Amino acid sequence: MRQFLTVVLVLAAVWGCWRFYHYVRDEIRSHEQRDTSGRYAPGKLPGLPAELEGSLASAQAEGPAALQRWLAAHRAEIAEPRLTEIELDYVVLAGRTSAREARRVLDQIGARIVRTHPLHRRFEQLNAAYP
Length: 131
What we know:
Layout: H1 2-37, H2 53-62, H3 64-74, H4 82-95, H5 99-110, H6 120-129
Helix pairs in contact: 2-3, 3-4, 4-5
C-alpha cells in the first residue's frame, strides 16, 4: 500500500508540474501579445498617401507654424490613425512655445480618440503634460 501511495503522489506531482508549466507558458504568450499590440513604428501608421511623405517631413523640419499650415492644407487627405500621429507631433512642436495651442489641439484629439487607438497611450502622456 505504501508503494502505491508513493507512486500516486509522484504521478500527481508530475501532473501538477506539467499543468503549471502549460499555464505559465500560456500566460507568457498572452502577455507578449498584449505588449506588442500597442507598439507601432513612428511614421509607419496607415493613413497618409505616399506622395505627401516628403512635404510632411519638410513641414516638420520647418517648425510648428509650417506643420500647422501643412495640416490645414492636407487634413482631408489624411486618415486615422496617421492624422492623430501628425497632430500629436504638432502638439510636441507647438507646446514648446504655446501651451495653450497644445491644449487646444489635444482637446480636439480627445474628442475623437478611443481607448483602442494605437496612439492612445501617447495621447494620455501628452494630455497629462499639458493641463
